[in-house]
Amino acid sequence: MAETILRGTLSFLNDLGVYDVILPFLLVFTIVFAILEKTKIFGVEKIDGQEITRKNMNAMTAFVIGFFVVASSQLVVLINIVAGQAFLLILLIVLFLMLAGVLQKEGEYELDGGWKKGLMITLFFALVLIFLNALGWLQTGYLFLSNYWNTDGVSAIILMLFVGLFIAWISKSSGTTKTKKGDS
Predict the structure, then answer these.
(1) For 134-159, what is each residue's pLDDT tens digit?
(2) What pTM was computed for the model?
(3) Range of the domain at 163
């Protein structure tokens, strides 16, 4: 297959280190800087009566953390794997929401409370699985289960699940509290 101009440009950028150095650095710098700005860990300065975050401290800290991350090739590989798989997850979410929006009547599409929470929980577990896969722990767990998966182990896991669910069901509160007359 002949190499196109755009493929050659991407190959040149790869040889230059854009994907292994610059983009991971910018990603880490941006995320850390945004977190530091939002949390105001280094405090604020009063300038002309307005409280402004210490952008110089936040930027320098994010800059140093970004360089530490880029210096570790293992972290860069982890970022590249996680970013690629997280993008696929985001693409699936967008396609699902497009399909759900097409099947809905007129108006703006919005997930109801239960569906929204369920989707958030599912996405959280998907991100955890993406990180476990990127670290190689998912493969280790799969190998462990495939080697030690027998009827005794399955029975013990199912029994523990039932006991845990039963305890959770018994100990959950009904959500309503009774108040005596005269209490406010």
Answers:
(1) 888 888 888 877 777 777 777 888 89
(2) 0.66
(3) 136-167
